[in-house]
Structure formats: C-alpha cells, structure tokens
TrEMBL record:
It comes from the Bacteria. PROSITE patterns: PAC, PAS. This is Blue-light-activated histidine kinase. The keyword Flavoprotein applies. Keywords: ATP-binding, Chromophore, Flavoprotein, FMN, Kinase, Nucleotide-binding, Phosphoprotein, Photoreceptor protein, Receptor, Repeat, Sensory transduction, Transferase, Virulence. SUPFAM superfamilies: PYP-like sensor domain (PAS domain). Residues 206-258, 331-381 form the PAC domain. Its EC number is 2.7.13.3. PANTHER family: HISTIDINE KINASE, TWO-COMPONENT SYSTEM SENSOR PROTEIN. It comes from Mesorhizobium wenxiniae. Residues 133-196 form the PAS domain. It catalyses: ATP + protein L-histidine = ADP + protein N-phospho-L-histidine. It is an enzyme of class 2 (transferase). CDD domains: PAS.
Amino acid sequence: MNSQSRRPDSNPSGRLLTHVASALVLAATLIFEKKASVYVGEGSSFLEFIPAIIIISYLEDRGPALAATILMVAAGLWARSTLHGQISGEDWARAILLVVSGGVIAMTFHRLRQDLRELLEVAETRLAAVEATENRYRWAFERAAMGFANTNERGELLQSNRRLSEMTGYEEEELAQLRLETLVHPDDRDALAQLLAGLGNDSASFASEVRLLKKNGSAFWARLTLSSSVPDGVLSESIFVVVDDISERRAVHEALRAQKEWLDLALSAGRLATWRIDLKDGIVTGSGTFWDILGLPPAASRRLDELSAVIHPADWPKLVASRKLASVTNYDVEIRVRRPDGHIRWVALRGREEKYDDRLQRLGVAADLTERRQTTLLRAAAKKRERIMLEQRHRFSNLFPVITALVNMVDVPENNVARYKETLVDRIRALEATHLLLSRNGNASGMLHDLVVQELQPYMGTRDISVSGPSVVISGGAAESFAMIVHELATNSLKHGALGDSKGRIEVNWTFASEDAGSDIVFEWVESGRRRTSKVVRHGFGSMILGVDGAPLVGYSPKLEMSDHGLRYSLRLSRKEIGP
C-alpha cells in the first residue's frame, strides 16, 4: 500500500473539507471577537482566540495557522480601535503575546505532524517488508519439494501445501478436514505421539521416520519433522509439519542391508573375514572373524605393529611393505600366524591396494588355509607313499626273474657244487646291495660310478660289461631315482637283452656336454647282442621310470632306441638337478 494514500492531505475532498472547517472556525471567532468587543469593551484579553488557533493549527499546516493567528490579532486590534478610538499599550502587549503563542502552537502541531508522518513511513516500510517476506514464504510454502503443513496442538491440519497434497492424494480442502494422526499408519502412531511429547517437553524440533497413508490406502515412508516454539513448556497453537518422502531412500537402504546380510552369510559360509589396513596411520580394522583367525579377541581396530606378536617374522615384511601406487593393484599374500595355543596357522590375505584421499590402504578378505595346506601335504605324502609302494612292488616282482636268471647264468665249475654255491651267493649279495641302496633314505648321496657298478656287479665276470665316465656325485633323492633307472635298464637287459645273452655286451658311459663345470651330463646305456623281443611295454611302471611316455624320474630328454640286435638309451642330467 502506498504511503501517500494514508495521509489526509493526499485526499482532495478531505482537504477541501478541512479548509472549510478552518474558515468557519476563523469566521466564528472573528464574529465572536466583534461582539465581545462591543459588550465587554476594553476588558477583552484576546484569550478567546486561543481555542480557535489550536483548532486551526490542528486542521491546517503552520502557514495557514500563522496567517489565521495574525488575522485574528489584527481583527481584535481593529475592533478596539473602532469602538474606543485608540489601542492601548496593554492591547498591543496582548496582541504580541497572542501572535507568539499562535506561532508556538502552529510550530508544535507542525512538528508533531512531521514526526507522525516519519513514523508512518517507517511503519509502512516495515509492513511492506513483512508483506514481501510473507509472499516469499507463501511462494516457498506452496512450491516446496517437501510437504508442509500447519497443525494445532489437537493435530488438526490448518494449512497444507501442494506437495503434501500430491504425496497423499488428498486435495488441500480435504486435508483441512483431517487430523495429522489420520495420515499416519496405525503401527506408527506411537511414534507421532512421541514426537508431540518431545515438543511439549524440551525440544523445539523433533523428527522420526514413519509411514503415511495415501487417500487410496497405500502407504509410503516419510521423515516427519514437527517444529514449534515452547513458551513456558506448553505447546503453541500452531505446529509446523515437514514431510519428506524417503520411500526410494528407504528402498535403497533395505536393499543395501539385504546385500550386507547376504555378503555376511557368504563370508561366514566360506569362512572368510574382511579387513582393512591404513598404511599411513598404521591402523588395522577387521571383522570379528578376522580377529578370530589371528587368535586375537575382537576389537574395533588395532595398531599394525601390535600384529607383529602373532605374525611369523619371515612373513612380517609382506604385511608392512608399501610402495607408491600409480593405480589400484591386487594384493595377494600368505602369512603364517602363531596363535596363543602355539599352533601355526596359514592365512591368505587377498584384496586390493589403492589410494583413498591420498592415503595408501589395503583392504580385502582373509581365509584360514591351514586345513587346506594340511590336506595338500597329506595328499602329497600319500601319493609319494603310493609311488614308493608301487616301486617296491615292481622291484619285488622283478627280483625273482633276476634271481632265476642269475642261477641260469652261473655255470658249475668242474662240477664243484661248493664253488657254484659260493659264486651264486656272491651274485645274490651284490643284487642285495643294489636293493639296499634303492631302499635307503632318499637324502643319501652317492657317486654315479658306484651306483652303476653296484647295479651291474652281479653280472660282471660273466658278461662283457664296461663302465666309464668322470667322477660325479649325485645327492639327495636324485641318487635314488637314478639308481632306479639303472636298475630298470639292468632288469630289462636281463630279461630281454645283453645280460640274458652270453655273447651280449653292455657299454655304460657318461660325459659332460661341454667343458663348462656347470654343464649337463650325458648318460648312455648301449647294449649289443641278440634281443629276445623287439617289443617293449610302453605303459608299465618301468616305462614310467625310464621316461618312455614322458619325463623320467630324474633328468630330461630321454631317448630309447631298440632293434633285434641291440638297445641304446640316453639321458641328460642337469647339474642343478642332481647337485654339485
């Protein structure tokens, strides 16, 4: 509203009436003064003009009021001059006093009128600001993205905005006829009661997540916030209600919670644990299962150096080593953990190593591999034992044909049975020494020459056999494996080749592949003489030992060539494989 429309002088008709009233007061005063001068005479004191001056100063501005005062003084002096023929000094003094009094009265009313106008302008300015604020509030109230409403302490909806109508499906007029409690799901009305109780006790604002009912009967999740001033602990008449639709957020939260439950179930079923290491601060956090794997009581977090008490010293660098990362990298290590009960457990840490907010961190899952490792070792031991038993059975099955062949090979010298017996026993003892060598601990070492000679010792003197080669020591399990290869060649030769033929010849030799001290060794077994058969079983245990179908027990690049008049077998032995 314009400030000029509120002022009396801004209305032409009102201003005219004011002038008429002032003129009538002035005319009445002048007539009264004339009559008073006639009947009162010199006793008139000009005081009858004071009420008129006050009335005119109230109605008019200071100019007209001063003019009216001077006019009244002049009329009074003229009336006294006409009736009495002269103006006394007392009359002049009264006239001057009246002019001064009229001026003071006019100035006083003028000043009061100015102050009143200034106050009106200030009030109008503030009223305009209040109206603008109210308009902005109404605009925001009506177009807000959240539902707004006002309710009294009885829960009656006094006012609501468009968004609340859209949320609930009610028109604004329909909402005005409802109570706030009606919109809340019956199962959540206790929460509404707690909100109201909170407002009435010690809070100016209170919020809770509740379900609200739509007009069609369906429900949606909303965050309901009640706000109110609390004078003297009593609810005010108006309570401000804010309704925020959180259905989507709630659905996402429920989905995340379900995924977390599934993840926890999967981790629990897989006996896995989660962990995280902040390498900058040296802080380790993990799930309860993670601390249980390490044999430590559950904790929210621990310092990294505290884990050094349970982690094997040789594996500690795997946990604390860090490097500058250009991008995210995988992290996969296995560490040994010494639990308080003294048992050593193998733990796998698998995850990612990355930078987060310029902080290097590792995070992932942990798994106890102890049982798996024990199972693997047991399986390997069982497989080795099975291989050894198979080897022993094969050697045992070959033993009797070898003994039979030895008996047939030894002639009775001059029908001397004792000499025959002694020679036969010597051959059997040599055979026994070879089998004892093969049955020794696999860690025993031996000279390559001794292994070959010991295996062929039972046949020397009766067959043409030559053994030659440089001095080479075979250590560890390689000696046993190599002795098995030589034994298999000797057994095969006794059954089918040169050792079974009185005219047969065997030449065994080995040489370095080059002059380099660390070069490989080339081993050769060459037979000449008639063979009983040119065929060989390629899928038996003997073929596996020689490497006919694949890799031999020791060495590499095996070659076997057979014909009706001989056999050649070669094998390369790595110096790194057989030892120094």
